[in-house]
Design goal:
7-stranded antiparallel sheet, single chain, 51 strands, 22% helix, 21 helices, alpha+beta
């Protein structure tokens, strides 16, 4: 190995790892001794040892300060970042006194802070300069200090220092206080960051005085403990391979030095710290998750090993535990940051739970338990309930582990007290519907300020175990909490088909087969947890859903549900609304149409720094048709997908380089409040105003957003029985280079010879490209490769092509070259597709379209599609203009209204006008009665600052004027009915975008 003498080359290190004796010449010291030591080391082979007697100091001017551009920031300059000192300290035992760390300029101390030496082991700290004492800089301000100094008032002592990053910019959200640097962010409400272990929460546990417990409670506690043990037990088919376990353990490169167990740094988020191989040597470390995987393996096989193997496993496990503690993973330590820690410590938590008796036998249970109680913020359960706020991250990564960690208290009295607090916390938060995140009244699962099933799935995997474990006991989750969670849990099987939730609500994970496939066990847990009221041992709703999804492959539970308990398989057919996601789902004959929009309160998609880079259009009034085979079986694949061509969307067709978002993070919301849906008798209506011109960014510090093409359209979808009627009007843009289009379909071809039927010809050729023109009174028509038929009613030529498409993976950025590792290097993709679209031309002013879709026709219906549409006189489009889209379904006498403009004469049927833009359905089959379903879709969230909302709906009012004199039964949301004149005016209170359905009788 070649040693570089940096001092001779006038090299000033950004990070100092103390690898060469020459570094000592760059440090001044008084009343102390500096030396290099290999006793306690992080990166590299040595660290700085400082021994002192009496008041002492050491310092250096030999360092470099990193600029913002030189700092490793995951999101660039998107999130505010500030200069931060990052360093590691090691103390072999708790010591008296303090040290003061300071920076000087021209001999004057500018900033400083103190650290008490009452700790043992490693401590990693991230201290932003703006939080230091003295004359601190402002947040984000570049610093230029010229001297780094450490002093102490302790009479004597020894400390080790390593990997000092004198200053790098660090994301301001991520520097965490702990017991040795408690002053960090002392001016903030630290509870706003739910990942941050808080000193106050840990003190709640220290100060808790538990009450005595009864024998009945002790029996419940043992039962819960055993249930968690059973959940963590691996299948009997897995055998012990001690050599494999040895190899995994040896890969950690740890060793017992007689005092403790040492090894490479045990890191978390190490990629956020500047690293210089020249200074620090090879980057050898153990990530906390990797250690957890090793300890979990050892724990899993301990009980099924023979005595000799058990002894060896125990030796390895205890060594790994001591290493964990020595590396600073102790109560009161945050290691610089612990943001999003819950994802990384699952395995190690499970390992410590499984091996709790071994830890107790070695006198380590209290210390390990305390470490995890701190890390998981368990003490927050003891806070005032007014501070409880539901958070899906918590439910996903911490809720089940909180239950588990309760049993790392040695005393059952503490277990019982914490379990009472836990049950109360879970009951309250699961019931909440008006918080920033969590489960809303319509069943949507909110995270990142919107419905986000990819995050909800984590909660759906964790919470059922909690509800099932505690069911039937005095610690059971409350009815309100159980009920609200059940609503959201079951909603997932409505907006998924049969298991996938599709691209519209995929967030930053489009076309990645995301869905509820993994929830089989959780549906069983919820079924056997009983109903929310606690009056039935089996929840019939959940059991019926399970039977539909998994029953045919599970004879045991099918027999229990159907034969023993008489529970039938559910039939999921009808129209379902999720207004807080601007989503509707129309189901018939084992297929589903997922209809998606966005608004002022509901974002279009999550475009991330290296995920969903081309995700501008998945909610532009899209309709995804899914059969029983899910996304891929219905023609939706990542390979070769043209990100402009989401079916049903109205878009400006852009080169992918231009389509890619300019911002690293974007969750676009328009300024339009009109996006919603209503339903009646299993049918439904969806409408939205699409406006890309101006809006806001739903997450992060930037709020104002918009697209230059200023695309605008009024769009609706009427879902009646086995058909969907699509209408678009007022389509415009100012883009004179790229065409504005409405996509009919984009379907992956499993066979390039797949037949497409059209009103002009039958297409088998590949490649193929043509324009389908309206050439008869019936208009033009076409089918796609999956049997969906499209009847074009408007005089709009249709573009059709079959060809091989080249595209980019959603996790690759054309403009930056960034590739998410999850994309597995597949920057460019390709596949064979059939596509069809309506071209509205360049910068259209008032374009429109009308077409009808018949999902998943059989072969005969496709071949004879012209006969099918000739014989279909079941509907009439009454109006399609800027004021309203109105369609009558003659089979049911239901008229659907999407009214975009208020106080305008509708001139069609019984509904004369509305006071606000609205969606209305009227069933007038009986001339002496009328059933109405109405929505005023403005969710009306409170805006607490420009572009930032509190995520709950407030009431809005809607007046409907009906022709003739009508009366209605009283309802709390019918505020007034005035039938004193020749017409009837009904005033409704609407909220959450949910339909108000009521009946009227003719007077």
């Amino acid at each position: 190995m070649v040693t570089i003498n940096f001092a001779q080359n006038n090299y000033k290190p950004t990070v100092e790892s103390f690898e060469d004796e020459t570094v000592l010449t760059n440090y001044d010291t008084s009343h102390g001794k500096l030396s290099l030591s290999n006793t306690h080391v992080r990166y590299g082979k040595s660290a700085l040892q400082w021994d002192w007697n009496g008041e002492s100091s050491m310092g250096t001017s030999h360092f470099k300060i990193l600029t913002l551009d030189e700092s490793p920031l995951a999101y660039g300059d998107y999130f505010p970042a500030s200069p931060t000192l990052q360093m590691s300290l090691y103390s072999e035992k708790p010591q008296a006194g303090t040290i003061t760390i300071s920076f000087e300029k021209n001999g004057i101390k500018e900033v400083y802070f103190d650290i008490e030496l009452s700790f043992k082991g490693w401590r990693r700290i991230w201290v932003p300069f703006y939080n230091m004492y003295g004359n601190p800089p402002k947040k984000g301000e570049q610093i230029d200090y010229d001297y780094f100094k450490i002093t102490t008032n302790s009479s004597n002592g020894t400390l080790f220092f390593d990997d000092i990053i004198f200053s790098q910019y660090q994301d301001d959200r991520h520097q965490y206080p702990d017991e040795i640097v408690p002053f960090i962010k002392s001016d903030l409400n630290l509870g706003d960051d739910h990942w941050m272990p808080l000193i106050s929460n840990y003190n709640n546990i220290k100060n808790l005085e538990p009450n005595p417990v009864s024998m009945a409670i002790r029996m419940d506690l043992k039962k819960f403990e055993q249930l968690i043990d059973q959940d963590l037990t691996i299948d009997k088919k897995y055998k012990v391979y001690i050599n494999t376990l040895r190899d995994m353990y040896q890969g950690l490169q740890i060793k017992d030095n007689g005092e403790t167990v040492v090894g490479p740094p045990l890191t978390f988020k190490e990629e956020q710290e500047y690293f210089d191989k020249n200074q620090q040597g090879d980057k050898v470390f153990n990530d906390i998750q990797d250690l957890g995987k090793v300890l979990k393996k050892l724990a899993n096989f301990h009980d099924r090993a023979n005595p000799a193997e058990q002894a060896e496993i125990e030796t390895m496990f205890i060594a790994g535990t001591k290493y964990f503690l020595d590396q600073g993973w102790q109560a009161g330590s945050n290691g610089g940051t612990r943001h999003h820690i819950g994802y990384n410590v699952r395995e190690i938590t499970e390992a410590f739970f499984i091996m709790r008796q071994l830890l107790f036998d070695h006198g380590l249970l209290d210390e390990v338990g305390g470490s995890l109680h701190w890390l998981f913020n368990l003490g927050m359960l003891l806070n005032d309930e007014n501070t409880f706020h539901v958070n899906i991250d918590y439910l996903n990564t911490q809720s089940y582990y909180h239950l588990m960690l309760i049993f790392l208290f040695e005393k059952q009295e503490m277990q019982a007290e914490m379990l009472r607090a836990y049950s109360k916390y879970m009951s309250i938060t699961l019931a909440q519907q008006k918080e920033e995140w969590g489960f809303k009244v319509d069943g949507t699962a909110w995270h990142h300020n919107g419905h986000y099933p990819a995050y909800g799935i984590g909660a759906f995997q964790a919470v059922p175990k909690v509800i099932k474990t505690l069911s039937g006991t005095r610690f059971r989750i409350s009815t309100a909490g159980h009920e609200n969670f059940k609503r959201a849990f079951l909603a997932s099987r409505i907006y998924s088909q049969p298991f996938e939730w599709g691209f519209g609500n995929a967030g930053r994970h489009p076309l990645e087969s995301n869905g509820i496939h993994s929830l089989k066990d959780e549906f069983l847990q919820m079924a056997y947890a009983g109903n929310p009221q606690g009056t039935s041992k089996i929840d019939k709703d959940v059991a019926g859903a399970y039977l539909r999804l998994w029953g045919k492959d599970d004879m045991l539970n099918t027999s229990i549900f159907t034969q023993v308990n008489g529970i039938p398989k559910e039939k999921l057919s009808g129209y379902y609304t999720f207004p807080l996601a601007a989503t509707a789902v129309h189901r018939r004959n084992d297929w589903a149409a997922i209809i998606k929009g966005y608004s002022k309160y509901v974002w279009a998609s999550e475009i991330y720094v290296n995920e969903n880079r081309y995700g501008r259009y998945p909610a532009n009034g899209t309709v995804q048709l899914l059969n029983s085979k899910g996304e891929e079986g219905s023609g939706f694949k990542q390979e070769g997908w043209d990100w402009n061509r989401y079916p049903g969307s109205t878009i400006i067709y852009l080169p992918l380089k231009t389509l890619e978002a300019k911002k690293s993070l974007l969750m676009f919301r328009s300024n339009e409040t009109f996006a919603g849906t209503t339903k009646l008798d299993g049918h439904g209506v969806f409408g939205m105003i699409l406006n890309e011109g101006d809006g806001t960014n739903a997450d992060g510090p930037e709020t104002k957003a918009g697209y230059p093409g200023k695309l605008f359209a009024k769009k609706s979808v009427f879902s009646f029985g086995d058909k969907l009627i699509y209408i678009g009007t007022n389509i415009s843009s100012i883009d004179k280079i790229n065409p504005t289009q409405t996509n009919i379909y984009q379907s992956y071809l499993t066979d390039t010879k797949s037949t497409l039927y059209t009103s002009s010809e039958t297409i088998k050729k590949f490649p193929y490209k043509a324009e389908l023109k309206k050439d008869s009174e019936m208009g033009s028509w076409l089918t796609d490769p999956y049997g969906n038929g499209y009847h074009i009613l408007s005089n709009t030529p249709i573009q059709i092509k079959k060809e091989r498409q080249q595209s980019y993976h959603n996790k690759y950025s054309i403009n930056t070259g960034s590739m998410n590792p999850k994309g597995k290097g597949a920057k460019e993709t390709e596949g064979d597709y059939a596509t069809a679209w309506i071209n509205h031309g360049l910068a259209p002013k008032n374009a429109s379209y009308q077409y009808v879709v018949y999902p998943f026709l059989n072969d005969d219906e496709q071949k004879n599609f012209d006969d099918k549409i000739k014989n279909d006189d079941s509907f009439t489009i009454i109006r399609a203009d800027s004021i309203a889209h109105i369609v009558l379904n003659k089979e049911t006498d239901i008229t659907g209204y999407v009214v975009f403009e208020a106080n305008q004469d509708l001139d069609s049927g019984l509904l004369l006008k509305v006071s606000e833009p609205a969606l209305v359905m009227l069933n007038h089959k009986n001339h002496n009665s009328l059933t109405i379903s109405a929505v005023q879709p403005d969710l009306n969230f409170p805006e607490y600052k420009k572009g930032k909302f509190r995520n709950y709906s407030r009431p809005v009012e809607l007046q409907m004027t009906l022709e003739g004199k009508w009366s209605t039964f009283p309802a709390d949301y019918i505020k007034n009915i005035d039938n004193s004149g020749t017409n009837t005016i009904i005033t409704l209170e609407c909220i959450n975008g949910l339909p108000r359905e009521f009946k009227l009788n003719k007077l």
